[in-house]
Amino acid sequence: MALIVMLSGGVMLGLVVAAMSPVAAKAALYFAGRSKADGDLVAQMIVTAPSIGIIVGGPITGWLIGRTGAKRFFLTALALFGVAGSAGLYLDDASMLLVSRFVLGLATSGIVTAMIVLISEYFTPEARARVLGFQSATGAFAGVLTIEAAGRLGDLGWRTPFALYLLSFVILALGLIYLPASPRAPRVREKSAAGSGSLIGLWPIYLMIIPMFIAVYMPNIQVSFLLRDDGIVRPLTQSHVIETGAFTVAVAALCFGAIRRRFSGTQILIACFIFQGVGIAVMGLSWGALGTAIGCGILGIGTGIANPLISDLIVARATPEMRSRAIGLSYTARYSGDFINPLVMHPLGVAIGLHNAFVSAGALFLIGVAVAVIWRQAIGKPAAA
Fold first, then answer.
1. What pLDDT, on a 0 to 100 scale, did the predictor assign at position 188?
2. CATH code at 2-184+193-378
3. CA-based nearest residue to 323, from 125, 121, 129, 185
4. What pLDDT band is residue 197 in, cutting at 50, 70 and 90?
């Protein structure tokens, strides 16, 4: 049961954006009618506002977990998550809703950072890759169910899906009962990778995460508007398209343990960016629900292997003393990509059309992969390194 509680952190992470994704277009109409503001941008920023909280909260929660303990911080963050997340049920002002979503992001950063710290404490390096894959898969499968539930609840109104955030109180109750304060038995002290004596040594990973997660959040942030431009506006239909990607994320994440044993981190990263670029381009070239769903599915394969890989790389390279801060900063980098997504895609979509913006973004990813592979070959580093 303790493992189930730990894996539930992925469920909370999936809820952050997925619960509102199918109703983003409805929320845009609501806020456009209340003010002269751009309803699309307001809705997109409400979807992504938690990312700002995670960006800010990542370093802070990492530091606090190192001093208060992962279990205590995990449970406190779950309570805050439920209160802030469900605020959309009754808040009417866009500014106040943005604040509540920011606090939701702070809580989420605490949940996911504490979750990975707990996993790193309880499991050996050999088991960790499998557990991190299970964690990512659990979050993705929960995302499928969340998107489906949000789509059905969204037919009742754009506010209704916010009730899904109350699930955190169930996990809080289970955590209070079943989650031990410390590992049952001490493990042999791990050695971190060479050259990783400080957080500065992890900067290449953090830098790589940002564009990767601009792509990861394409379905949750942009696909609702892409489908709307194609005349597909029903929340349930949109949720079925978006959840296709969530399903392939889950399947790919379940396979991560086996993939990690057979391929190097560099090979997996290259494959991830290829899947992301192709998926985004397919969505841009499609003009209907089926083609867009296929694009979401292809993108989801890249996302499914990227999530656990990043966590595994960070945990392996960080010393136990700095692990919570390193993990917190990784989520700052991940959600920087989430936050940047609408700031890039919205003006690009206005300028050249959203479909063309998708095609352009996908092409840039594939060009970037080609340049990276050629550069590594030029300096004598094969992809398997």
1. 43
2. 1.20.1250.20
3. 121
4. low
Matching residue, tokens 């205590």: 72
d(CA 272, CA 208): 12
- pLDDT at residue number 187: 47
- Give, in order, the Cα–Cα distances in Å from 209 to each of 48, 309, 314, 336: 17, 11, 11, 9
- Read off the tokens for 282: 């397919």
> Which comes out higher in pLDDT, residue 96 or 359?
359
CB of 307 within 8 A of CB of 313? no
CB 146 within 8 A of CB 14: yes
CA distance linking residue 107 with residue 80, whole number of Å = 6
- Structure token pair of residue 211: 């564009």
The more confident residue out of 109 and 139 is 109
Q: Cα–Cα distance between 241 and 223 in angstroms, integer?
A: 8
Query: Rounded distance, CA 312 to CA 116, Å?
Result: 9
Task: Evaluate if residue 96 carries a pLDDT over 80.
Answer: yes
The owner of tokens 């960070």 is 314
Separation of alpha carbons 346 and 214, rounded Å: 13
Distance CA 194, CA 92 (A): 52
Nearest residue to 182 (alpha-carbon basis) of 262, 271, 70: 70
Alpha helices (runs of H) in the chain, residue ranges in sequence order: 2-18, 24-34, 39-68, 70-85, 94-122, 125-154, 167-178, 203-216, 218-221, 223-229, 235-254, 256-262, 265-285, 289-317, 323-352, 354-378
* Contact yes or no for 229/126 (Cβ under 8 A): no
CA–CA distance, 324 with 139 (Å, rounded to integer): 20
3-state SS assignment for residue 264: coil
Q: Which of 138, 142, 182 is nearest to 7 (CA)?
A: 138
32-86 pLDDT, tens per residue?
A: 777 666 677 788 788 878 878 888 888 888 888 878 888 888 899 999 999 999 9
Token pair, residue 103, equals 């606090």
The two tokens of residue 214 are 């601009």
383 closest CA partner among 264, 278, 205: 264
Judge contact between 363 and 281, C-beta under 8 A.
yes
Residue ranges per structural domain of the chain: 2-184+193-378
